[in-house]
Every structure is written in C-alpha cells, then in structure tokens.
Amino acid sequence: MRAALGLGLLLLAPIAHAEEAPAADAPTVRVVPLTQARDDTRLQAYLNQALAANPALDARNADVQASDADLLAARAQQWPQLSLNARYTHADGGRTIDIPTGQLLNPVYDTLNQYLEERGEPPQFPNISDQRIKFLRSHEQETKLTLNAPLIDVSLWANVDAKRALAGASRADREAYARSLVRELKRAYYGAVEAQAAVGILEASLAVLVENVRVSQALVDAGKATRDRVLRAEAERLDTVQQLDAARARAAQSKRLLNMLRAQPDDAPLELPTPAELPLPPSRDDDDIRTRPELRALDDNLLASQASERAARGASLPTLGIAADYGIQGEEYHFNDDAQFDTVSLVLRWQLWDAGTRRAQRRSARAQSAGLLSQREDLQRRLVLARRAAREDLDTARRAIDTGRARLEAAEEGFRIAERKRDAAALSQIEFLDAERTLREARLQLAINRCDALDRAAELELANASYALPATLTAP
C-alpha cells in the first residue's frame, strides 16, 4: 500500500516528464528534455514558423508591396511620358467652299483665244468650271510619337511625398502586426504549457485519489472506518475526474490555437516543456526600449496628410510642361519630307476657378492632420501606461513564483504528514483529502505562476518593442 502511495507522490513531482494521453482531436505532444528546453529553442522555432507563414502577416506583406507599387507609380509621373498615336479618318459630307474660278478666268481665256484666232493660231485656253472644295478630306491619316514632360507641378511632387509616407506607414503596420503575432503566439505557447502541466498534475492527483479509495475500503473492511469514508473518497475522485476532463479540453484548445498561429494543421505535433523547465524571465526588460511601430505608422500617416495639404495648395498654382510631336500625315502613308512633321510646345495650365474644390480639399487635409496629431498624443500616453503596467505585472508575477514555491514546499510536507497519519488511521478522511487538495492546488498554482510570469514578460517585450524581428519585417 505504501509503495503505491509513494508512486502517487512521485507522479506529483514538480518536474515530472509524464506524457499526457491526448484526446481524440488533440495534437500529439512530446515532452522536451531539460537540456533542450533551457534556451527554449522550440518556442523560437514556432515563432519563426509564424513569422514566415502566418496568412494574416502575408496579407500585411501584400499591403506593403501594393504601397511600394503606388510609390513607384507616383515617381513615374514625374518623368517624361512617350506615346504612339495613330489615326486614320474616312469622311463624307461636311462643309465646302465655292471658288468662282470659271467666272473669273473664262472671260480672260475667251479674249486670249480670240486674239490667237485673229493671228491664225488655234485657241489654247479651254473654259474651266467653278471649284467646290471640301473642308474634310475624304480620307487621311496621322501617325505620331508624342512626348509629354512635366517641368513645374507642385502637386506631382507632393503626391510622391504622400505615397512615400503611406509606404512607410504600411511597413510600420506590418511590423506592429508581427509584434502582436509574436505576443499572441507566446501567450498561446505558455497557455499550452500551463494546460499540459495541469493535465499531468491532475492525472497524478487522480492516481493518488484512486489509491485513497482503495485504502479507505480496506479500512472499512478492517472495521477501522465507516462506509462514509469510502463515499467521501469516491466523491473526491469523481470531482478530480471532471477537472481532468476540463483540463484536457483546455489543453487541446490551446494547442490548436498555437498550431493556427504558426500556420500548421490543427493536429500538428507539438513539443512542450514543463513549467519547471521554462527559463525564468529577467527582472527588468527596460534596457532595449524602441519606438513602437504604431507610433511610426501614425507619424507616417501624418506626413502623408501634410503632403496632401501641399498638393491641394499646389493645385492653385500654374503648371508648366513640354509637349513634342513627331510623325507623318497625309492621305496616304508616305515617309518623305512632305509627309513628316514635328512640333514642340511649352504648355502652361493655370486653373483660375473651381467652385471651391481646392479650398475644401485643403480644409479636409488640415482636419485629417489635426486628428492624427490628437490620435498620436492619445496613443503615446496609452503606450506609456501599458509599459508601466506590464513592468509592474512582471514584478508581481516574479514574486508570485517565490510565494508559490514556498506554498508548494509547505503543502508537500503537510501531505507527507497526512499520509502517515492516514495509514495509521489517526487522520480523518476530510483532513487527508484537504491535504491532497492543498498539494494539488499548490502544484497547479506554481505552474500557473511560472507561465504567467513568462506571459507578463512577453507583454513587457511587446510594450518595449524589444523582440528582435527579422530585418525583412523592420526595414524602413
């Protein structure tokens, strides 16, 4: 009997490495040896998987690519544009002009012919008809190369500045999501470790309670206890069975969440350490405080809004450009001096009145800038408060680990004493079950405290933006 109880105590050891018998839909979990868990390389591998394959992060990458393409398009508008334009026209009807050539020249020709006849020579000047000339040719073509180049256009320059700022904001948004992804994956990871530890502790506790039912029945059979002792032991066992079932469900859910964040199938295998194997977080994480990407995104959006305001003001100024054409035209396609033509023009455009459109655009841009400034001030204060709260929570969580250790030591010693008294029939059933429950809760609480401390450290890491993301996610 004592050997069985000793086995139960061994299963309750804080650094137990027993595997959980997974539920039907739970991922397979392999416990990591202590030598592998000290550096938490498995967590880093999961983070690398998430940062490389998370679909939501891929969407942010696509947004960055789109903003870069918009910037290239805005820059391209500052360069000359060359186009080929061809036109072939067939026309019927249209306006005409009548020229009285016959009325003007035929009397002269008649006089000349009469003079020639008097000299005995044949007439040489025939009569001609009046001419009707169409303004539109019946068919014609024009083929030309057109070059347009802006020389002075404030709106174009401001548009490039706005697109550049928006591209920076898109990168900052991507970095902000990447840091949030790291935070969420660490929360899921430590939650899975905690849930897995709870399953192991409850399984070990269940083994002790099963043995307690057997011992209680033996005492009843020996006439040293009444039947209520067995019933009380069985009720406690069933309560633990219910807790274990809930813990297994939580463990399966936390593992599925972890697999989802790292873009893996729900039932992908996981390697999880025990809470005792997790390295404790440092007491402070204030040596590496960086500007939060959320602030940089607001700053870039503010620059874009200011550039939009400059573009609205620039629309009130004249623009100057150059336009050049070279090509051929005529009724047929001929490449000769008569068909070729070229033109070069300076084009000035100044919009003098637009019914208040540009004024409204300037007001809108100024209002957006003012709103972004207010948002930045509010976000700055919120981030300072979040950093302070995360630092305080981490300090509290670290102290809770020390308290949990002391509580566990007391609970273990109390259970050993209760066990000896129980075997000697010198302890009531309620007192023994209370000692076992106290030990179980102490083990669970210490596991929770360790995981919570690491979770608080991850929160402070997010508040300080101190996690070392890949350079591809932090490039300006």
Automatic annotation (TrEMBL):
One of its GO terms (cellular component) is cell outer membrane. InterPro entries: OMP_efflux (IPR003423), TolC-like (IPR051906). It is found in: Cell outer membrane. Keywords: Cell outer membrane, Membrane, Signal, Transmembrane, Transmembrane beta strand, Transport. Pfam families: OEP (PF02321). Residues 1-18 form the signal peptide. The keyword Repeat does not apply. GO terms for molecular function: efflux transmembrane transporter activity; porin activity. It comes from the Bacteria. Its main location: membrane. Residues 265-289 are annotated as: Disordered. Belongs to the outer membrane factor (OMF) (TC 1.B.17) family. This is TolC family protein.
